[in-house]
Amino acid sequence: DAGITQSPRHKVTETGTPVTLRCHQTENHRYMYWYRQDPGHGLRLIHYSYGVKDTDKGEVSDGYSVSRSKTEDFLLTLESATSSQTSVYFCAISESTGLEGSQYFGPGTRLLVL
Amino acid sequence: KQEVTQIPAALSVPEGENLVLNCSFTDSAIYNLQWFRQDPGKGLTSLLLIQSSQREQTSGRLNASLDKSSGRSTLYIAASQPGDSATYLCAVNGISGAGSYQLTFGKGTKLSVIP
């Protein structure tokens, strides 16, 4: 299994509070991604990174920001959590852009916003 | 906008049966297609990756085919086992509206293999 960890694995928070999720990899892969998974929607890309300090928006980026100061860490921040952000969040990594290689996923973080 | 559809949404089969899961996509301009497995409460495990120039890939009892021109892929599972019970996800890799590479996922097929 690819060396990807996510923390925390579970979190309950209140509306309006900031939340930061962490993804850590030991594979030294260049590309990192944040997805959310919701019933009826499947997995959707939030943000991705193609290198240290290089990030871009995905399909559902509103309300989220990311940072990548080191190759191994990719942080997802909800500046002011809302109930619509209750979801399961997955981090993924890939060695290439994905043109040739696979994406490998972390175990996920379950977030409940009350 | 790319859309990926997986049919059926759920499937229940007796152990030992061969089965086929279907995936269709609306935009044939893809770079590759990937099949994943997801167990309840777990992350995704990559099963097979098919490049756009390939027709099929095989791994053990799994065989995935790709017909890019018709926008279809199938995942064939031979001699199914109870341990194959999981949700199977199809994802296509193509260029998003913003010009970046992006995986677009189907909603999955939930497979139950009955002993």
Structural description of this entry:
Helix content of chain A is 0%, strand content 57%. Chain A is mostly beta strands and 114 residues long. In chain A, strands 2, 4, 5, 6, 9, 10 and 11 form a seven-stranded mixed sheet that branches. The mean pLDDT of chain A is 92. Chain B has no helices and eleven strands. Chain B has strands at 4-7, 10-14, 19-25, 30-38, 44-51, 56-59, 62-67, 72-77, 86-95, 101-105, 109-114. The interface between A and B is medium-sized, with 26 and 26 residues.
Q: Compute the separation of the termini of chain A in Å.
A: 34 Å
What amount of the residues of chain A lies in strands? over 45%
Largest interface: A-B, 26 and 26 residues
The main β sheet of chain B shows up as: 6 strands, mixed
| First and last CA, distance of chain B | 41 Å
Radius of gyration of chain B: 14 Å
Shape annotation of chain B: globular
Give the low-confidence spans of chain A.
Answer: none
Q: Strand pairing plus helix content of chain A: what structural class?
A: mainly beta
Q: Nearest-angstrom radius of gyration of chain A?
A: 13 Å
Helix content of chain B: under 10%
Mean pLDDT of chain B, rounded to whole units? 93
Q: What characteristics describe this protein?
A:
heterodimer, A: 114 residues, mainly beta, 7-stranded mixed sheet, 4-stranded antiparallel sheet, 11 strands, B: 115 residues, 0% helix
List the helices and strands and how they pair.
The complex is a heterodimer of chains A (114) and B (115).
Chain A: E1 4-7, E2 10-13, E3 19-25, E4 31-38, E5 42-51, E6 54-57, E7 64-70, E8 73-78, E9 87-94, E10 104-105, E11 109-113
Parallel strand pairs in A: 2-11
Antiparallel strand pairs in A: 1-3, 3-8, 4-5, 4-9, 5-6, 7-8, 9-10, 9-11
Chain B: E1 4-7, E2 10-14, E3 19-25, E4 30-38, E5 44-51, E6 56-59, E7 62-67, E8 72-77, E9 86-95, E10 101-105, E11 109-114
Parallel strand pairs in B: 2-11
Antiparallel strand pairs in B: 1-3, 3-8, 4-5, 4-9, 6-7, 7-8, 9-10, 9-11
